[in-house]
Every structure is written in structure tokens, then in C-alpha cells.
Amino acid sequence: NEEEFLKVCEKRKTENGGKLKAVDINKKELEIEVKELKSLSQVIEGLKEKFPGLVHWRVPVCNSAAPLAADFDNICKTLVGTAINTPVIVNDQVGLSRATTGCVIACLFKEFQISASFEGLVETVPGVNASLLKTDRYVMNPEKDTLNRGEFEVVKELISKLKDGAGAKNNADKIIDLNGTPKTGGTGIKQLRENIAESKLSYEIMDDAAQAFLKTKIMDNIQKYFYLIAFTAYIRESAAAAREVVEADQKAAVALPASGKCSIPAAQLKLGKSFVTFLSENAGLDDLIDTGKGNLQWERDIPPAALANLEGLAAKDFKGNLGKIIHDIYQTAHVMFSDMPQGDHKKRAKYRFASKTLMRILPPAKKTEVEGLIAGNAMTMDLYEILGKCTWAVPK
Q1: How far apart are CA 42 and CA 26, in angstroms?
Q2: Facing residues of 32 across strands?
Q3: What pTM value is reported for the model?
Q4: Do the Cβ atoms of 186 and 180 come closer than 8 Å?
């Protein structure tokens, strides 16, 4: 609420002798002398005096999760009626995830305008290969792993349910990459798809509390990616419909003599239905993402042969074989995490794996004792703490 936020700032300024404490984007603490306080809406209204055509629309969205379907529609309603070259400025508090999401949505709407307005016109230009202009032909670098390519199980199911789902995903990936970092051909600072893979890599080295937070964030970002693909399918369908839906008395004015196809000015284009309606017509997508966004392999599987070897050593003589057990756990971890670059991240991942694996093969009585101590916050699932509990004998 802008009005309430302005009141809070006024109160803090008054209590702090006309100054406000703030934190910049680099988390540097600042103390600023305040000469005048205005809400964002008041600033925008002042700008309209200089730029009378300026339209401001505020869409509150979650930082990680997808905007609501109605939020997609609100952005589209604001852009309907704009010219093809109308600048669109998108910003959020920090300028990362939410701003990039807004930019992707705006770019997809511009694609709707380009596709619906100029496809017929482009086809009349001699020597132009129209297929080169289609973003659904986008081919991602095959050397990227499945997570970086966005090939999540729930996304695969979405593609199978949408009309030309593969084309919609290609189209969305192209726009996401263009709005992403320079390494994916973009000019932005946030890669909405590959950010999921980066977070998943970080997940493996976090403690339990941090993992719980990061898991939610990863699932939220998968949900966002899912709906961006669904929105792309909606936009593509809307563009095809807009090219055909022209009033009979207006068709002569926009039809091209050479082909008979229509080239409708972008500012005159309308969306035949809302994204909310599109989702209701494709029933089941909301349930699909709610149940499928967590369908990831959250922990690396220990090879069956390695697990059988460790379980055998533990069953035969746990204390007597403890040195070899620890050696073999780390030897297995070395192989399992060989894809990770050397450094602290890899060390933490291997250490965490060793802690969990040792806990997994503890003798039943000792395992029950350690689990009770962890539940009572008397110890943590840490390799050295578990080893200490297994080897330490209370002096008589």
C-alpha cells in the first residue's frame, strides 16, 4: 500500500531528524537527508506533465513464483492499443527476477503484435525467408544439461497437453534467453530458466534449514517457467486468431493486394480472450503444476553396488570396519560429485553426503539413539558428531 508506506517513511524521517536510513542494491547502508517525500504514483503523475502519453500500471507479484493469470491479463490490457514501436519500461524494487519476468511478458506481447500485424506483409517482400523470423524454430545449445534446458518432467507434460507445445517452449526459451544474461545471448542480468539449475546446484550444499527455503524457491521458479510457456501458447494462439478476425467492412483497408492476407496495424489489434479463459479451456494445467513442480531428484542416488558394500561392512562389524566405511563413503562421494568444480561447494556437498550416508547405515540401536538426539536438538546430522557418538565411550 503506497499511502501507508509513505506515512511510515514520513514518521521515520521525523523521528530521525529529517533523515532516512536505507539500504542500496548492494546492501550498503545509507542515511539520506530528506527534502521531499513522494510516492511512486505521485512521481509518475509528475512525469505525465512532460510525457503526456505515459501510462503507468502497477502489478504486485511474488518475487519467485509466477504472476497470477489475472496479472498476465492486466499487463496485456495495458499494452493493447499501443503501437509496435511504443517503448515499455519495466522495473521492480531490485530489478532482477520480477522485472525480468515483466520484460519477458512484454516481449511476448510484442511478438503477438509483430506476428498478427506483419506476417502477411513480410511474406510479400521478395527474398525474405519468413521462417527465419519465427522464434519457435529456436534450438538451444544441446551441450547444456537437462535442467539448464528447462526439461523438467512437469514441463514435458505441459508440452504434451498444449497445441504445438514444443513450439511454445522454443518461443518462450528464445525470449527468456534474450532477456537473460550475455552468456545466453541476452542483455539482462537474470536468466529465469537457468537460474533454476543454479539454485538446484546450490541446494546440494546447504544445511537442512537453507534447503527448505531453497526448495520452495526452486519450485516457485519452475511454476513461473511453466506459466510463461503456457502464456506463450496463449499468445501464439491469439496472434493466429487476430489475423483472421477482421470485420468485413475493414478487410479491404488492411488486406494486401499481392496475397490477400491482412496486415493489421498493431494499435488496432485485440486479444480475442483472456489468459484466464485460455487456462480454463485447458483444464488441469493448474493442478498439473501444483502436483508436479516438486518432481525433481533432490538428492543424488548412491550407486547400488556402493551402498551394498557399505551396508555389508556395517552389518559385519560396524566399529571394526569404521575406518574403511568412512574411506569408502568418501571414495563414492568423489565419483558421485565428479561433475562439480573443485572448491568449497564440492567439499560441502561431499561432507553432507558423507554425513547422511553414515546416518543411513548406522546399526539400528545406534541409529535410534542418534535420531532421538537430533530430534531433541542435542546434536545435528554432522559427520563428526555422528562419529563421536559412535566412538565415544562414557568414562566409568
Answers
A1: 26
A2: 20
A3: 0.79
A4: yes
* Cα–Cα distance for residue pair 346/303, rounded to 1 Å: 19
How many CB atoms are closer than 10 A to CB 148? 19
Q: 202-206 contacts: CB < 8 A, separation 24 or more? A: 202/345, 203/298, 204/299, 204/300, 204/349, 204/352, 205/345, 205/348, 205/349, 205/352
SS3 (DSSP) at 32 = strand
260 by DSSP, 3-state: which?
coil
Residue 120 clears pLDDT 80, i.e. is over it? no
Calpha distance 115→133 (Å, rounded): 10
Give the integer Cα–Cα distance in Å for 350 and 347: 5
Answer whether residue 368 shows pLDDT above 60.
Answer: yes
388, three cell numbers: 563421536
Nearest to 276 by CA among 70, 90, 81: 70
Residue 342's contacts (CB-CB under 8 Å, 6 or more residues apart) are: none
Q: What is the mean pLDDT of residues 3-32?
A: 90
Q: What is the DSSP letter of 29?
A: E
For 275-324, write each residue's pLDDT tens digit: 999 999 999 999 999 999 999 988 888 999 999 999 999 999 999 999 99
The Cα 138–Cα 232 span in angstroms is 14
Q: What are the beta bridge partners of residue 30?
A: 22
Q: List the grid coordinates of 237.
A: 494462439
Number of Cα atoms under 13 Å in the Cβ half of residue 216: 7
